[in-house]
Design goal:
By secondary structure, the protein is of the alpha+beta class. The chain folds into two domains: 2-187 and 339-399, FAD/NAD(P)-binding domain (3-Layer(bba) Sandwich), CATH 3.50.50.60; 193-333, Helicase, Ruva Protein, domain 3, CATH 1.10.8. It is 25% helix and 24% strand. Strand 15 (219-230) and strand 16 (234-236) form a beta hairpin. Helix 1 (10-19) runs parallel beside helix 10 and helix 7 packs across helix 9 (316-327). Bound molecules: flavin-adenine dinucleotide.
Amino acid sequence: MTIGIIGGGASGMAAALAASENKEAQIVLMERQARVGRKLQATGNGRCNLTNLHAVQGGYHGEDASFTNYAISRFDPEKTLVWFRSLGLFTVAEESGRVYPYSDQANSVVDVLRFALEKPNISVKLGFEVEKVKKTASGFRVESKEEALDFDKLIIACGGLAGTKLGGTMSGYKLLRSLGHKCTKLRPTLVQLKSGWNGVAALKGVRANCHAAIYHNGVLFSQSTGELQFTEYGLSGPVIFEVSRDACQGGGVWLCRLDFLPEIPEEDVLRELLRRRETQLPASELLTGILHNRLGRVLTQAAGISGNRMIAELSDYELTQLAKLTKAFEVSLTEPLGMDSAQVTAGGIVTADFDETTMQSRIVPGLYACGEVLDIDGDCGGYNLQWAWSSGYLAGAHAGGLT
Ligand SMILES: Cc1cc2nc3c(=O)[nH]c(=O)nc-3n(C[C@H](O)[C@H](O)[C@H](O)COP(=O)(O)OP(=O)(O)OC[C@H]3O[C@@H](n4cnc5c(N)ncnc54)[C@H](O)[C@@H]3O)c2cc1C
């Protein structure tokens, strides 16, 4: 039996390794880039957050997020880690459930997969961009510019459009559409949100632990707590990725309310500011020792307090306004940054046309899809790679006749 796998990313490599357990199966893994796992290498800021121990409890989105249940419970985070250990990877879990390689290097994950692919029944074709796929009487014909290959079974693991510079492409959607599958609207997710507030650039590079709540036309849309990072364009960092799904889509007024001191009540902040009236310090130092200096000065200015005034001369009202701002600072939002900056694609190939227990197409028998190309996206924190491993492993095992 011959199995073609298009895409040498996370899900494609998992599929190849699972299928290769059948020694009779001949597997060809086709990757258009010069090496496998290009995007994987950039994940988790170069650390690769390869799974999340809580992924079995949900954290997935799409027209039918329950499509993930079977694959994720069959090849759950625990089994995934046992599998990676068998490939030679040591891992460490953080309290949040996020798991990283012990080396703290995404390279380690790519390397153990790359070495594992060196098997007699797996052939890896690099720089092989599949342009067309056709259904034939006995299986599938796959064509690149230079070569045509025939397979009994075909797995499409081309990933999504997000992270264009790292290999994100429309290719998988186009190939699956050419075989009769439908695609939902694609949107960037786990992405920075742009702001129209002109103070944002002055805070570029500032990080803060905060509670972020997104409001659409005054109604709470999404919220989370974690690290925020100001960028040249707006807001970024894990807490923003977590609230970014579908934010700023579809018009209306969008804003982000930031609580920079989520664990400290407003009264405590105000008490400290009032105490500072006993000092001989200028107002520019009002939030020194409480928040990042630059952030403190921006908030003080936003409260209408000039940094040159002395704290001793500020009124109760002025200090109350500043205390309020540390707990509820509103930043206007305009739009998400584009697909090239997004970590993940929301939307994709309609999952109703696939069997969730095998990842096989209901339209074209012998055809499989896995990973981000499908209409599934996960929360920030290892959920997307877990989906890639689980769905890839399931597709490979079934195509290889092992389930
Ligand atoms: C910057 C960044 C950081 C991220 N960090 C994390 C993280 O820490 N944790 C997490 O869970 N998720 C993270 N993600 C998301 C995660 O990387 C993806 O969801 C995951 O890689 C999807 O796996 P996949 O196999 O579906 O696609 P990919 O890993 O993207 O692999 C698809 C492969 O197919 C190849 N390909 C496409 N079309 C063709 C074709 N026609 N012919 C041949 N080859 C083709 C591509 O070159 C690519 O190598 C991150 C994403 C980005 C962009």
